[in-house]
Amino acid sequence: MEKVNLWKATAAIVKQQFDIEEDASEPLTEEAFHGFLSKKIEWMLEYNIELLFSTLYRMDVSEKSVAEAMHPEAAFPAHLGLATLVIKRQMERIRTKIDLKQPPLQEDEDWGW
User: Does residue 113 form part of some domain?
Assistant: First the structure.
């Protein structure tokens, strides 16, 4: 899958999970989307941390990575680190689905009832 489609698929999943709306008049760049997501995560850290952790869990973001991103001595503020983790994890999941895509099952007489 080419990078543009991978990015679009990743952004679509993340937007849905974090309830992010974008201005449809111009497509978001990766940097702009990271900014929107990090602001949403920053808000969630302040006002709805339970929902944030639930969303991170559903999106299969590693607890260890989340703990590292939220550590006071982390390289970046927590909201920026978490946004990066979310985007990277969703890209990994999409790549895995593409790499391990199974061909459709063929109808077989043995499976008929």
Answer: no
Q: For residue 61, is it within any domain?
A: yes
Give the pTM. Answer: 0.82
Helices 30-47 and 3-18: angle between axes, nearest 10 degrees = 20
Listed as ranges, residues in the chain with pLDDT below 70 are 1-4, 22-27, 105, 107-113
- Report the candidate in 26, 102, 10, 95 with the shortest Cα–Cα distance to residue 59: 10
Q: How many domains does the chain have?
A: 1
Domain that holds residue 81: 3-100
Count CB atoms within 10 A of the CB of residue 68.
Answer: 14
